[in-house]
Amino acid sequence: MKLFTITSFLICSLIGVTFAQSKSEVLDYKDLLSEKKEEVHYQAAEENKNEIESVFSGLFMVYKNFISSQDGSNCVFYPSCSEYGLLAVKKYGVLMGTANTMDRLTRCNGLSPEKYSWTEDRTLMIDELK
Amino acid sequence: MNSIKIKSSIYFILIFNFSCLISVISQAQTVSQTFDYGLNLMELNRPKEAIAAFQRVLFFGDEDFQKKVFPNIAECYFLLEDYATASRYFDLAYFSASTDTTKTNYTFKKIESLVREKSFLFAKVELLNLPDNLPPTLSNKKLLYSGIIHYGLGEYDESKASFLQIVSEETPQMTIIAAFSKLEKVAKISPKKARIMSMIVPGLGQFYAGDVRNGINSLVLNGSFAYLTLQTMFNYSIWDAAISILPWYQRYHMGGYLRAEEAAYEKIRRETGEIFQEIIVTVASAQPTSQKTPTQSATLNK
């Protein structure tokens, strides 16, 4: 019994010397270089109150997924012109919303930076729907 | 009027004397009490409040307290996953430490913070700071960090050598070698090639990078614009096409090849990450399941 205790103690201490860290400690680094792909979430396309809003939200999602996704980052504003357009249609209706969107599109050129505040990373000008 | 003045001055003197008496009798929290309070907060897993207490100790305490406070603040930031600040405080702890053992411990903690922050280059510098003659437990830890850091820096041969030294059995060693050989395939993925391919045929670069959905999307979109450009050219004039459709075509064509390059980079990062996961799992499988060495965090605050 004594011999068994001594031998097991020696084995245990040897294991302690051989391994630097436990399995869980090593596994802690497993996801160090894995990048989690963040899903793009468009709040503007949510909570549609009627069919017209649903149609415009659908068109917006099609545009975002199939057309805008193939484009570079050209819009200078936050929120982007498409998001602004959808929000405008939702708030003011189709006619006034379209007019608002047209107005926004004519301003989307970055020629008057002094008129807008900037996002935290200083990449986009803030122009929220009023 | 005079009696009111006398009364108010008597009240003032009484209140003043009373407050002086209270301040003499009662004692404010001492620096060591604040330090203990910080330790208690740490034990209660409230690192933010603990930092505030330790900062007080740092302000009012003498140099001896600095030695105790720096590692604890560093540990708090580490718990808050603010690894950049944690590594800075571990650095201060390193310079205020008096023994080599504690210095080594803080260097390890600093390396851990830098690795988690993905500042592999700085972590490599710290790795060189470690002494050559370490006890086996720590030398294995050093090898693990060396493997991770070299991998993060793209120095795969050095990384492989470090990981192989940790694992002594043949089977996991073979798995690690096989995993590293997969990296040769990843190294062949060229973002530049993807970009050029998409310049020639829109969408081709995305297919090359394994992004089929965006490849088809780019091909269809650019095909439509090319068709519209040609239609306008034949039906109207080349100038009409140049003014109306060509800018759109150029915009999405350019967006397409830039995205193809991005997709290739993403593929490289994803596959490198997957191989790294495989290596770490293999290395972990060769380690004991429950044994945990006494980490610095357990001994730091004492």
Question: What distinguishing features does this structure have?
Answer:
heterodimer; A: 130 residues; mainly alpha; three-stranded mixed sheet; 4 helices; 3 strands; B: 302 residues; Serine Threonine Protein Phosphatase 5, Tetratricopeptide repeat; 16 helices; 81% helix; disordered C terminus
Round the Cα radius of gyration of chain A to an integer and report it.
28 Å
Helix content of chain A: 40-55%
N-to-C CA distance of chain B: 64 Å
CATH structural architecture of the largest domain in chain B: Alpha Horseshoe
The major beta sheet of chain A can be summarized as: 3 strands, mixed
Would you identify the regions of chain A where 5 or more consecutive residues have pLDDT less than 50? Answer: 1-19
Uncertain ranges of chain B: 291-302
Rg of chain B, alpha carbons: 32 Å
Structure, explained:
The complex is a heterodimer of chains A (130) and B (302). By secondary structure, chain A is mainly alpha-helical. Chain A has a domain at 74-130. Helix content of chain A is 51%, strand content 5%. Chain A is built from 4 helices and 3 strands; from the N terminus they run H-H-H-E-H-E-E. Chain A has a 3-stranded mixed sheet, with no helix packed on it. Chain A is extended, with a radius of gyration of 28 Å. The termini of chain A are far apart. Residues 1-19 of chain A have low confidence and may be disordered. With 302 residues, chain B is mainly alpha-helical. Chain B folds into 2 domains: 31-166, Alpha Horseshoe (Serine Threonine Protein Phosphatase 5, Tetratricopeptide repeat); 191-285. Chain B has 16 helices and no strands. Chain B has helices spanning 2-25, 31-43, 47-60, 63-79, 83-96, 100-116, 120-129, 136-152, 156-166, 170-187, 191-200, 204-208, 212-235, 238-244, 246-285, 296-300. Residues 291-302 of chain B have low confidence and may be disordered.
